[in-house]
Known about the structure:
By secondary structure, this protein is α/β, with parallel strands linked by helices.
Amino acid sequence: MKQLNYDVVVIGGGPAGMAAALKAKETGATVAIIERNDELGGILNQCIHSGFGLSYFKQELTGPEYAELFIKQVAAVDIAVYLKTMVIDLSGERQVKAMNEEGMLQIDAAAIVLAMGCRERTRGAIKIPGSRPAGVLTAGLAQRYVNIENRKPGERIVILGSGDIGLIMARRLTLEGMQVLGVYELMPYANGLYRNIKNCLDDFDIPLHLSTTVTNIIGYPHLEAIEVAKVDENFKVFEETREVIPCDTLLLSIGLIPENELSQKSGVSLNPRTNGPLVNEALETDQPGIFACGNVLHVHDLVDNVTLEAEQAGTAAAAYALQQNIEIGVSENRPTETKPSEIKTAIPLSPGENVGYTVPAKMTIPSSKEARILFRVRKPLEQAEVVIQSGATILYQGKPRAFKPSVMEEVVLNPADINGSEQPITVSVREVKK
């Protein structure tokens, strides 16, 4: 087994992993990226549509173009990159065990950044009744078939779920000459960004059916039809609305799940709502020296936001690594242990009314940096206000406006207000009467 040592090891070579690695390298830390695929870039390599980079690079890029800008930056600095390398174990002591064509690797790190991204939910996650034929696949797999492997998934296609990947594929398949019969969404509202509803469905006259789901899959060995039906507010089927739609392909765009098997192996606690790690304001998990960022932490709307979050994680991981009194890599200038007067108190941060989850899940007090809080609402709200409070004390109250579950919300608090908090902090979005 080959033994290696680095200050910071980043697991995952997508946009989050590369951004974190570059920031960690800027501090003078020794850095390695471990990626299981043949190349860096992650999911961006198959996202050939434009719309990336508008915030971060101030220009409109395709997914591969966005990835290439970071790949070139990684290649230009001294970051060790291990491609076609699968991490098979991660301990709470920051020991990484991996395997590639050369054999087993054991890598000791002063700090770890988890950047493994996420995977798609499959048919088994929602238990659609019926036969198990060919022709039922996730929207992301169909995207890879069309954009990378030049394969045609079918002719007459139905999409279940209004996530952004499904919406984008509705347009992509239509442009390639396939017939998208419709997009069906269980919820009474669309889950994708508004721009994708407009550009991918409305512009191509593809119907979106809300409060409707697939109730049966028909055909074997290949898909022949699906049955759909309307549902009420409790998701109970209206029997009289059942309808059979002949088709040969069903794409599932029903949500994403963070890739957190390694997180669990290392002992990191997960958020039951997002299935991503619970982190503090520095994006550090409850396992010291293990940080998380990007879609492995929580599912983001935009890759630009993933990049910014990852840069924060990379900076924090490098700072942690360089403070350790252990000999890892070739880094120097490791200060002494934290003094008792510098010990910080962790204050829990939790979702309140109409809020699904918050990132971070706790904040350390005192804090000299900005207190940045991300959250999503559980349902669309036409007129509501953000209220953040510590006990009965209101720390922040926003102006009434509309909220959507598809949009990640952000509030930056005054650190001085947080430093005075002693009770758990709650983030709520309260409806306001017009």
